[in-house]
Write a structure and sequence with these properties.
- The structure is a single chain.
- By secondary structure, the chain is an alpha/beta fold.
- The strands form two sheets. It has a five-stranded parallel beta sheet, covered by helices on one side.
- The protein contains 17 helices and eight strands.
- The chain is about 45% helix and about 5% strand.
- The protein is globular, with a radius of gyration of 25 Å.
Amino acid sequence: YSGMVPHNADKKMGLNITESAPWNGFTRPAILQPFDPRFEEMAAAYYKEQEALFGKANYYSMDPFHESKMIGEIDYDAAGQIIMKTMKRVNPKAVWVVQAWDKNPQYDMIKNLKNGDMLILDLFSECRPQWGIPSLWQRKEGFIHHNWAFCFLQNFGANVGLHGRMDQLLKNFYETKTNPLAKHMTGFGLTMEGSENNPVMFELMSELPWRPEKITKEEWLKDYLVARYGVKDEKIEQAWMILANEIYNCPRGNNQQGPHESIFCGRPSLTNFQVSSWSKMKNYYDPTTTAEAARLMLEVAEKYRGNNNFEYDLVDIVRQAIADRGRIVYNHTIADFKNFDKRSFDKNHKEFLNLLLLQDKLLGTRKEFRVGNWIEKARKLGNTPEEKDLYEWNARVQITTWGNRYCADTGKLRDYAHKEWNGILKDFYYKRWKAYWGTLKDQLDGKPEVILDYYAMEEPWTLDKTPYSSTPEGDAINVAKEVYNLTFNSTMSF
C-alpha cells in the first residue's frame, strides 16, 4: 500500500490528503502521505482485504509516484521507508516490485532501503535502459544496491505494426554479462502493453536468457524461421533478412514508443506523421523494403497453405507494406494540394482511400486482425445485457477516443491504443479521411476552408452497438495476392 485514496477522501473519510493534478482530463486518486498518522491504519485495512481476496503474497507491485505531478512536496526517503515497513509488518518476506520508467523510482525513495527488499523492473531495457549504460534515461549509478530485472517493453498501446530493435536488444542484453553495474540483475521480464503482435521479437527476448553463447540476429533468425514454419526456405529467409535489417532494426538513438504507426489510423491533417500523441516516431527504415519482403513471401505462399504461422505472418507483412505505401501516397497527396495540382490530387487521394479499403479487406481474413474479435471478447465478460453494453463501450472507447471530448482533444489521449483492424478501418478511419480529403478538394475548387469536428465524427462509433463478427472472411493467401497486386500495380503471377 502506497497511500492511494479516493480523490474526495478528505470529505468522506476525514483524511489529510495531498491532491494529485488531473491526468489528461481524468481525476487522479489523491495521496495519503506515508508519514500521516492514519497511514498505517489504512495500510493495515488494505492488506487485510487483499489477503482475504488473494491470499498472502511475497511480491507487492506499487509505484507511488509514477508519472505523477503532486501538489506539494514529497519526502521520498521517508515515504519509501514507511511503505516498506508497513509491507514487512504484513509479511516479513515481502519484496517491493517497482517499475523503472522516467524518474520512477525516485533515487531518494530507494537509497536507504536494503538490498533484497526491492525488485526494480527496468521496463524499456532494449531502448532506454536505466541500469547504468548510456541512454535517454540513463542513471549513472544504475539501481545502486538493489536487485533488478532486464525487461523488454516493445509495444505501447498494443498498436499494430511490425517493429523491433534486434541489434540494440542483443547489444544491451550482452552488456549485462560484463558491466559491473549489472551485478544485481536477478532476472528478465516482458513488460509490454500489448503482446499479440511481432512474435519474432518476443521469441528472441525469451530465448536470450537461456543461451550462454553470444549470437547474431542473422544466426538466430535462421533457426527461428525453421521452428516457426517447420521448413527451411530460401525465399522466406530472404524476406525476413530484409525485415531484420530494416523495420526490425530500429537503431540506438531512436526512442520511439512502439511501431511506425499506420497513417490510415491518424486524425487527418496537412502534417500527419505519428498517430498517437506520445509515440515519438522517427523514420528509420526504407518503407519500400516491406513491399519487397511481402513479394518474396507471396512467391512461396502456395507451398504453405494451411500453415497457420505462415499465413498470419504473410497477412501481417503485406499489411505493413500497404500501410507503408499509404504513407507515401499521403505525402504525394499533400504535395498535390500545396502545389494546387488538381489532377494529381484527385488521383492520389482516391488511391489513398482505396488502399485503406484494401487493407480492411486483407485484415478481414484473420481473426487476430478483426475488431469483432476485440468486441466479442469484451461482451463475453458481461453477465447482464447492461454489463455487456458497458464493456463494449469501454472496448470501443479505449481504441479510439479513450474518453470524452476533453480527454480526446485537449488531453490528447485519442488514438493512443489505435488498431489497424478490419471493421474499424472501414467504419471509423475511412470516414475521417474521406471527409478530410473532401475539404481539401473543396478548397482547390475555390470554396472556403472547413474545420472538421473529429470528435463529433468519432463518438457515434463508440456508442454504436452494430455487431462485428470475429469470423475470418476470405482466403488469406488469395486475398493477400489480390491486394498486393492492386496496391503495387503488379502483374506478377504468384
